[in-house]
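In this section we walk through a basic example: taking a raw amino acid sequence and producing a predicted 3D structure, encoded as discrete structure tokens. The instruction is simple. Fold the sequence below.
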Amino acid sequence: MDAPKFQNGRDQVVTISEAARVLGVANRTIHLWIERGILKSWKTPGGHWRIPRENVQAILKDRERQLAAQGKNDVCRVLVVEDDPDAIDYYQDAFSGWDLPIHLNTAENGFQGLIQIGEDHPDLIITDLKMPGMDGFEFVRNLQSRTNLKHTRVIAVTALKEKEVVERGGLPDDVPIFFKPVSLDRIREIIKDVLLSKRPGRGY
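The resulting token sequence is shown next.
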């Protein structure tokens, strides 16, 4: 489509990556939605995709209405804090292939993760440890001081060696560390356990 004319064009549009982060999906999912006409879009003279911010916000609000209709206890809200887009795609592809009610949000570092927590109140947080800005170690320490997260489970994933984790101060005993490559089967079992704890008497 032709680029619409906005008074503040830069504030009114988002990139593929920004839309993916806001909606908690992989970049290729955004491309697929563009192809299907779910998201309006156009290309800049330099060949970069631009999406109207209001279109992204409308999808986000519609999804939130659907989640509210289902009830929070029917969904496991997962926040993945990870700066590697390929890793985000890895989680997204896995979660979408499981027959489990999962609502995924993403953040690129600890600072963004703290913002997302305030907005989304996740049941499960999966965080990388080595990230720019606020890394996973500082992020987890910050989580420990938040009383409103006492029912939120936290998992750390890392390519660091166990010795390196210890040298950097380690993590609290109640935060398990999954060394990469991550076992998705183990994460799936944790999500099932979260769902079971939220819905007594019902399992998957």
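Looking at the output, two observations stand out. The two ends are 43 Å apart (CA to CA). The chain is about 45% helix and 15% strand. In the next section we compare this with other chains.
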